Amino acid sequence: MAAPTSAPPWALVVPLKLATDAKSRLAGHLSPGRRLELALAMLGDTIEAAAAATGVDHLVVVTADAAMAAAATAAAGGLATDLVDEPDPPGLNAAVRAGIRAARAGRPAHAVGVLLGDLPALRPAELSAALALAARHRLALVPDAGGTGTTLLTALAGVAVAPAFGPGSARRHAAGGHVVVAVPARSGLVRDVDVPADIAAVLALGVGHRTARVLRGYTG
Ligand SMILES: Nc1nc2c(ncn2[C@@H]2O[C@H](COP(=O)(O)OP(=O)(O)OP(=O)(O)O)[C@@H](O)[C@H]2O)c(=O)[nH]1
Ligand SMILES: C=C(OP(=O)(O)O)C(=O)O
Question: InterPro entries recorded for this chain (predicted)?
Fold first, then answer.
């Protein structure tokens, strides 16, 4: 069903794993220290871009990691940011549900978006454009570059949402009623970093300054 046309304000939920566990698929490629630095840098660049997107006036960061929480708050640059502790039992979808609950408790009239925290090439205008398209639908999603994952999941105010992140999540979210929002193939919004080839892909798009610093001299 199509949604109302006026642009809603947005609350964005960003789930963040413990930095020491993050980016495990890069373990054979980067040292533990470099992976930790990269995870922190990528989340900072993601949050900075997200906080500058049109209509976004509230961030909810869900994490058990104090360093991730501090990096996120710093990168948000003064935008209202709530920190929510990892739920018990923990896990990505539990964290997302907790974040959505917190976002809606504080701002029930906001639309809510769930954004993954590893999108270092994201630019504010790309997220602004995707949120404007998503606002036309009660439930929407942006798939990752491979088409199988989800980088942004959205729901308008008051619309029930059942997050099903994890491998193959785009298909599950679509089956749950989320409309696929088309974004340009070269958008940083679709380029999350999971495996070594993703690093080259985001560097080709251009990454934020934190990630650029960590990856300076990176040759693959
Ligand atoms: N709060 C919370 N966030 C999570 C959890 N698992 C993943 N995330 C976050 O969800 C996003 C996507 O994470 P994944 O791709 O599953 O994990 P990753 O650490 O990025 O990479 P891998 O370790 O290689 O799977 C990132 O922002 C993660 O920090 C979790 O259990 N709790
Ligand atoms: C968690 C997800 O992504 P990834 O593991 O690819 O980062 C997902 O797409 O639901």
Answer: CofC, Nucleotide-diphossugar_trans
- Among all bound ligands, the one having the nearest atom to the CA of 149 is 2
Does ligand 1 lie within 6 Å of residue 61's CB atom?
Answer: no
Q: Residue 44: which of 152, 117, 95 has the closest Cα?
A: 117
- Has 150 been labeled as part of a binding site? yes
In angstroms, the CA 156 to CA 217 distance is: 43
Q: Which of 49, 155, 47 is nearest to 97 (CA)?
A: 155
Ligand 2 neighbour 166 (Cβ under 6 A):
yes
Task: Kindly report the pTM of this predicted structure.
Answer: 0.96
Q: Which residue has the tokens 């408790």?
A: 105
Q: How far is CA 213 from CA 41, 48, 51, 156, in A?
A: 8, 15, 21, 37
Report ipTM for this prediction.
0.97
User: How many residues are present in the chain?
Assistant: 220
Instruction: Verify whether ligand 1 is closer than 6 Å to residue 95 (CB atom).
Output: yes
Q: Which two tokens stand for residue 4?
A: 């109302």
- The reply to whether ligand 2 has any atom less than 6 angstroms from the CB of 169 is yes
For residue 190, how far is its CA from the centre of ligand 2 (angstroms)?
11
Q: 3 pLDDT exceeds 60?
A: no
